[in-house]
Amino acid sequence: MVITSIHSELTCLSEVLQQHNELANVSLIHVGLLGCSPTFPTTAIMLQCLELYHQLRRRQSSFSIQAFAKALCSLHNITYVPTFHDQFTMAFDAYLAILREVQTRVDVSLGQSDPNWHLRYGCPACTFKQEDEPPLHPASLKSMDGNNSAKRMANAGYADQRVFQSRYMISPSQVDVFKDDVQLRPGARQQSDSDPASCTDNWKAANSTDENTIRVFEQTGIFLAACRHGMVQTIAEMRHSGELAKYPLATINKLLDMCGNNQAIGTDIGCQLSKTVAASSLCHKAKQCDLRLAVNAFHGHAHNRRCQL
């Protein structure tokens, strides 16, 4: 059996102890290897090698399997052939499936199997309460904003139809609930003496997504919310659009459902978003939960004085 590793020497393994009726890959796992086929593997990859690529992909998602396979070939001083790409792909998919199953079992054992566990308990500084602790006003501070760097081309990556569970992602169906939310409530916007009307009427965010980008990319960016300690709360994919109102509305809805009352959320257009929430189906929920929307310090200097306080 040929063993692929991150070391410069290519190892040939002649014998692996295999119990009666034991699958080949089970025997290989015992010695730190994972075969490239499910039944009769002739090539195996070291788990350290698979984990190295796993961490590389987490830090640089564009680093392809083909590039990594070619780098391994250079280390072993052999000629790259497309078969190496296929073998590594199959082993890496199996490795990721193993990691997901292990993490699922660990979460069950620790009592963290609830899909919304990280929102309720993920940040100890935000969620852990001492006995007789005086209440804070607001109880938690969060921020949210869109980012147009995380793009994905349209019609790319459709070979894999699997849908993976995520503790952070807000599904497109949950986002689209608020697609026409404000437009379907005409006349719901109401001005009050406390509204920063001059700011919301005169200030407009720059449009960072043009029509060509919307046509070319399926995912034009992400909309992310995090607590004041930098712990990610939610992520929503921005699909075929710029930073529309439905993304912050879906994020606010999720945070209100999971994190409860008395929250303060900072965003670059907090003044305008306050009016949008008031004109949406979240109006009554936001009032009942005492939601506060504010302009973060970085963007506050572009707004009027009321937004900076």
Provide a concise account of the structure shown.
With 309 residues, the protein is an alpha/beta fold. The protein contains 14 helices and 11 strands. The protein has 2 domains: 108 residues, no CATH class; 191 residues, no CATH class.
Main attributes?
309 residues; 40% helix; KDZ; CxC1-like cysteine cluster associated with KDZ transposases domain-containing protein; alpha/beta
Please indicate the count of domains.
Answer: 2
| Major beta sheet summary | 7 strands, mixed
Instruction: State mean pLDDT (0 to 100 scale).
Output: 82
What is the share of helical residues? 25-40%
Report the strand count: 11
Order of helices and strands: EEHEEHHHHHEEEHHHEEHEHHEHH
Low-confidence stretches: none
Question: How would the global form be characterised?
Answer: elongated
Amino-to-carboxy terminus distance: 68 Å
Q: SS-based structural class?
A: alpha/beta
InterPro entries: KDZ
Pfam families: KDZ
Organism: Paxillus rubicundulus Ve08.2h10
Protein name: CxC1-like cysteine cluster associated with KDZ transposases domain-containing protein
How would you sum up this structure, described in words?
By secondary structure, this protein is α/β, with parallel strands linked by helices. It has 2 domains: about 1-110, no CATH class; about 120-309, no CATH class. The chain is about 40% helix and about 15% strand. It has 14 helices and 11 strands. The protein has helices at about 25-30, 45-60, 65-75, 80-110, 115-120, 125, 170-175, 195-200, 210-215, 245-260, 270-280, 285-290, 295-300, 305-309; strands spanning about 1-5, 10, 35, 45, 140-145, 150-155, 170, 215-225, 230-240, 265, 290-295. Strands 5, 6, 7, 8, 9, 10 and 11 form a 7-stranded mixed sheet that branches. It has a 4-stranded mixed sheet with strand order 2-1-4-3. The radius of gyration is 25 Å and the shape is elongated. The protein starts with a strand and ends with a helix. The mean pLDDT is about 80.
